[in-house]
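This part of the workshop introduces the protein records we will be handling. A record pairs a protein's sequence with a compact description of its fold. Comparing a sequence with its tokens is the quickest way to learn the format. To make this concrete, we reproduce a full record directly below:
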Amino acid sequence: MITARDLGALAADRLYQARTQLGHLLRRRAADRYRGGDREPVLLLPGVYETWHFLRPVANRLHALGHPIHVLTDLGYNRMTIADSAALAQRYLDDRDLRRVIIIAHSKGGLIAKHMMMIDDVTGRIDRLIAVNSPFDGSKLARYAPVATLRAFSPTDTTVKTLAENLETNSRITSLYSRLDPLIPGGSRLDGATNVELSMVGHFRPLGSRELLDEIERVLASPEAKE
């Protein structure tokens, strides 16, 4: 049951989305300052209609821990198909010979990353994926979307179904998700993955929360991350 408090949190979620989009337009700061570090490289993959700036709080936290942070400016607002986006991201890893890569992804970014892990990453550059509010089984709301870019997240979409049917890759995925996500009514729980439900409500606002950042740091510090 959705409470009045939940409705307030959902409104705050949309406000967070708008503020982040506006902040990117007003402050186009480069990602080069995040490149240094001697720990495992991190690739950030945002959601649809998002730039990497939505994941800037993650970049700040993990760079402070010593991880070099990589972003895909050529991805733009992430409107390409999942397959094309995955190919672009894989070329980035290959061209720079990055290894033991940790992908931190939001929403659509999680599908792109899983596609890479299943199909594109033939030399095994990707170590693991930490996904935030990703529609691994699609979203039933996508069927009613006014544009094809969003309808691509329908549970009946061929790419979404192919990704969902593959369970082998899931053991290297940690899925973090809000207890209530208005854009993914079915949730982001993924069979065979490490699943963590956050106490927050919303699709976007958790990205800037201490709860999420602490959980990502905890996952990276787990024994599995060091094997």
User: Anything to note?
Assistant: The two ends are 41 Å apart (CA to CA). The beta strands are 42-45, 69-70, 101-106, 126-132, 173-180, 194-201. The chain has a mean pLDDT of 93. The chain is about 40% helix and 15% strand.
